Amino acid sequence: MTFPADFVWGAATAAHQVEGGNWNSDCWALESARPSLFVEHSGVACDQFARYGDDLAILAGLGLNTYRFSIEWARVEPEEGGFSQQALDHYKRIIDACWSRNIQPMATFHHFTNPRWVARDGGFQNDRFPERFARYCETVACAFGDQLAYACTINEINLPDSLDQLMARVKAKYPDRVAAGEAAIGAPIESFFLFAGVAGYTARAVRTHELARDAIKSAAPHVPVGMTMSIQECEAEPGGEAGVAAYKQRVYAPYYDSAKRDDFLGVQTYTRMRFGADGKATRRPPPDAELTQMGYEYRPQALGAACRDAWAATQTPIIVTESGIATQDDGRRRAFIRSALEGVSAAMAAGVDIRGYVYWTLLDNFEWMSGYAPTFGLVGVDRRTMARAIKPSAVMIGEIARANSLEAATKSADQVLSAGAAVGVSDR
Ligand code: BGC
After folding, report:
1. How does pLDDT run across 120-175, given as a tens digit for each residue?
2. pTM
3. What domains appear along the chain, each with residue ranges and CATH number?
4. SS3 153
């Protein structure tokens, strides 16, 4: 199972989850509320604002060729129309550091968080959101957009649509936490991305993506631009076919339609959803299923299914911009990556145009409301010292990338680690 010579092999992060000190964002305000919807505060996260150089050295040393990271709007535009040259310079330094190590920078312009001033004004619920976001994208793209290898507008743009019922239950169960959060951000909780899936969201989100894409393209016409979507394998239990169709129509179709006009579509898959005869979706796994730390069904095969679905609907080239597993057992992570890539390879053999695979995530990091307990990383982070520890799965994916072949995935952990030592992979 080999991959094309220019295949994108990467690992991803998102600013709020790794940088630390993102105090001007709505998420930080929600974490600081008492009581809070978040189990703990992001705080210094992985201190990556300071340590990005070391992390890029690890990524390059492993053999990966792409780094997906996000640009934090709350840093770049701390007040409406007031752009921070310091913040723009920071992200420009990250891009320079990528190229100096032969790593392609793939930047995401929105990964869940908004600046406080945007949240205070309703976030995605405000009709002015699309123009505001596009102006920020244009500013960033004019500053260094042409130096990006890929640009992703909005991360998992359809996630609010898919979370709508779950978040309605969270609201009903924790009214005091929601009230404290709303007081902290100065707006209804629907202002925060994860709760944004209410009437009007989908159309506004599509418009936001399209304005952002055009803004980036006008400053950097040669840079491939796309959105990323949360796409899970959807399986019908007996009688559940209509439920699957209705879900795809509501949560995927509006974005697939828009993605037909994009350069690529970012596919992000974590598990399988099942639909019963009542038409309802459940993320509840089958009784005998192996579970990840997130409580999801262990289901690496979901990725191939998601790619086939996206390709059939859009015929737009795909980059897997996130695929990963939260586990403490790195052997299960290696098995997961191997199996997910087998699914990618089989889909490619069947004619699906897949251009890359980016693992979520480079570092064990801040998993939003679940805090630091779930560990998705290829690289561990000591929460006290911030020291990085490379896991065998990191070495394995690096070997796969170097060889453009899945053969390395058949090795034992010891063989993988000694292969890593042979090419000089070490913790920094
Ligand atoms: C998000 C990441 C998140 C990951 C694991 C995706 O929904 O883009 O920010 O950490 O899933 O839950």
Report:
1. 999 999 999 999 999 999 999 999 999 999 999 999 999 999 999 999 999 999 99
2. 0.97
3. 8-423 (3.20.20.80)
4. strand
